[in-house]
Amino acid sequence: MKLGIIGSRGHIGYVFESIGEADDWELSAFSTGCDDAPEQLEGMAKKAGFSPEYFADWRTMLEQGKLDMVAVDGPFDLHAQMAAFALERNIPVFCEKPIALNLADLERVKAAQRHSTAKILSMVGLRYEGAFQHALNLVRAGKIGKVKQIFAQKSYKLGDRPDFYRHRATFGGTIPWVGSHALDWIMAFSGSSFASVYATQNREDNHGHGDLEMSCHCIFTMRNQVQALASIDYLRPMNAPTHGDDRVRVAGTAGVLEVRSGRILLIDAEGEREIAVPPPERKIFSDFARSVAEGVDCWVSTEETFELTRACLLARDAADNGTICRF
Amino acid sequence: MKLGIIGSRGHIGYVFESIGEADDWELSAFSTGCDDAPEQLEGMAKKAGFSPEYFADWRTMLEQGKLDMVAVDGPFDLHAQMAAFALERNIPVFCEKPIALNLADLERVKAAQRHSTAKILSMVGLRYEGAFQHALNLVRAGKIGKVKQIFAQKSYKLGDRPDFYRHRATFGGTIPWVGSHALDWIMAFSGSSFASVYATQNREDNHGHGDLEMSCHCIFTMRNQVQALASIDYLRPMNAPTHGDDRVRVAGTAGVLEVRSGRILLIDAEGEREIAVPPPERKIFSDFARSVAEGVDCWVSTEETFELTRACLLARDAADNGTICRF
């Protein structure tokens, strides 16, 4: 099975993390999808034991590369165009999130997928992270009863970011970029699509990062009446021990489960205790690669990818306009 | 200095916790303010070394008791009436929160206070709790720079509650009753009054508790642009180690501070560490009692008491009506 890659602006590392575990996939072609130099991707490929053909033009690669899948990680504002182009040629897409920076582009990808035999997965890698993956299995197995309330936190270090982070048109906003993980947890742990959102955001004190929002808050009601909050920020001090402080707290009718610092804490009828985190059952790229190669389900569906993207964009709209958005 | 008490439905324990440390205060009179039997309050008074005069009628007590302060902890729906009656007679009021269950009643108390020489404090005892008190001192001293974002959590066990909790008219709602603490932290840590709120609430799965909401979420923007979230619930399992899981996380331009499980965790330029919690400098009742006796400021002002009550009621309105409320 032949994989092509376009770009390495975001989480393309997911591919290299598990391509060795996926049956018969080889990285056969790559492009940067823009003016980025090819050396970085070339180096990553070589390190993983691949010598892919380089294409200056990503369209040529998709048209002539005879690919069984493409991983899209080019400029954020081109995700939708690249994904739609691939889907129109029935090439499955492993796509950096968010897959579109506006609703019109999302509709374009959805339309392409509707007429395609191929599926698309956005890189919600943190749902696959060991503690979150096991926590989700526990909640789905009913360990805390009926889910009622969710709080999700993404807190990142800002550092000094490339110029494209400083412009809404090329970055997309902090809710879609950082918040997508929190919203994916909310969707997964609630077991529901979204019904409404209100949100706030603030770009002051962003150390010269232009449009970039330093902190965002979202409040959701899900279709199944689960209530959810997301707290998203770039305020994590540079001397904090890790880049991110990822958390989720899920309260149900029979218990409260938390993921914090990679650990799972559970309170239920038996009291409070830590749950050991087993090695992850699935990794995001190999899970999708297997679903493509064997025609089986992936842990995250195409429908969830679309729903998550829409939620990110409507939450951003709510914050931009100070209004409640209904789905 | 003579103190009277009306009722023991809520946190009247704050009085007995520190009346011994307040200069020259004696509990000289009490009433239950309703059909509640007087034995409970009588027992608490005796245990603290007082033999207060019992009044069947709280109005008579306020008119004839020559009181220097009254602690109001009768039926929730009578807080406002009792507080206004006392203020109209220039008697300072240490009042269970929320001091009013609707905006009209709040206006009545405010009007009474405007024409009074007396002040009113609502029992936001958790602001005085050791870890929160010290954390607030640290934040006010600038340890995390400019405050940007706050998350406050109140999670309680439900148990089996008296009948008055089951009716909105006599309980007031979970946002005002439980959430008032979270909103007080938000007001205190942000150093600002409130600008807008949206909120959600859910009363399903409340184990026969009628109107009582099991979970609530609020999203605030403060006048100084600080963003804040409150997560409020009665979902804490009965076998959890403590009744409440009180938390606040405050993210600023120079650090992130958290209070959790009575501990303070700080991340700043020096990295991540726990801050030792010193014994509280102030206790809520003795702080107010001293401010009344000596004419000095209390840590929480009358204006903050009014602002907090209004915020609770507008957040509840937002949740009731599904609308954004502007202050």
Description:
The structure is a homodimer of 327-residue chains. Chain A is α/β, with parallel strands linked by helices and 327 residues long. Chain A has two domains: 2-123, 3-Layer(aba) Sandwich (Rossmann fold), CATH 3.40.50; 130-280 and 310-326, Dihydrodipicolinate Reductase, domain 2 (2-Layer Sandwich), CATH 3.30.360.10. Chain A contains twelve helices and 15 strands. Chain A has helices at 13-18, 39-47, 58-64, 79-88, 103-114, 125-128, 130-140, 168-171, 174-177, 179-190, 284-294, 302-321; strands at residues 2-6, 26-31, 53-54, 69-72, 93-95, 120-122, 147-155, 194-202, 215-222, 227-233, 247-252, 255-260, 263-268, 271-275, 325-326. The first copy, chain A, has a nine-stranded mixed β-sheet with strand order 14-13-12-11-7-10-9-8-15. Chain A has a six-stranded parallel β-sheet with strand order 3-2-1-4-5-6, sandwiched between helices. In chain A, strand 2 (26-31), helix 2 (39-47) and strand 3 form a beta-alpha-beta unit. In chain A, helix 4 packs parallel to helix 5 (103-114) and helix 10 (179-190) crosses helix 12 (302-321). The relative contact order of chain A is 0.17. At the A-B interface, strand 7, strand 8, strand 9, strand 10 and strand 11 of A face strand 7, strand 8, strand 9, strand 10 and strand 11 of B.
